[in-house]
Amino acid sequence: MTISKRCARSALRWKTPISLLDAVTLARKWRPGVVLLDLMMPLGDGWEAAEAIRAIDLDLLLIAHTSCTNDEDRSRAQRTGFNGYFVKPTELENMIALMRRYFAAYEAEPEPVRQAGGSR
To answer: What are the φ and ψ backbone dihedral angles of 3, each rounded to 5 degrees?
Structure first.
């Protein structure tokens, strides 16, 4: 079952962009707490989208979800600002565990440490 189908059965709210421009526009407009990006998007790629989205919000949880398995892509993901890197097929429970750890740590930070403009 795809991640989108699993989310449809949950109480989560999500948006599914179809291109790099859609992803960046949704991130700017919607200000999500989590962005899950495929690194091979139509009309652009996840790397470009990640850089643009990071410029909008430094605090959101940015996750790469990809079929790219080489070490260079993993390193590039870290340099680009991804907080997580998952190779397809991915167990949704592993992503949820990352989200729980991220938001538990985020909520534990004192308010002044958080980046200005964060929406979590």
So the answer is: -60, -40
**Rounded (5°) CA angle 6-10-14:** 80
Interatomic CA distance for residues 32 and 107, integer angstroms: 16
Give the per-residue pLDDT at 60: 92
Tokens of 1: 């079952």
CA atoms within 13 A on the CB side of 32: 21
pLDDT tens digits, 91-118: 888 998 999 999 998 888 776 554 444 5
Give the pLDDT of residue 116.
44
Domain 14-113 has CATH 3.40.50.2300: yes
Residues sharing a CB contact under 8 Å with residue 73, sequence separation 6 or more, in sequence order: 39, 66, 85
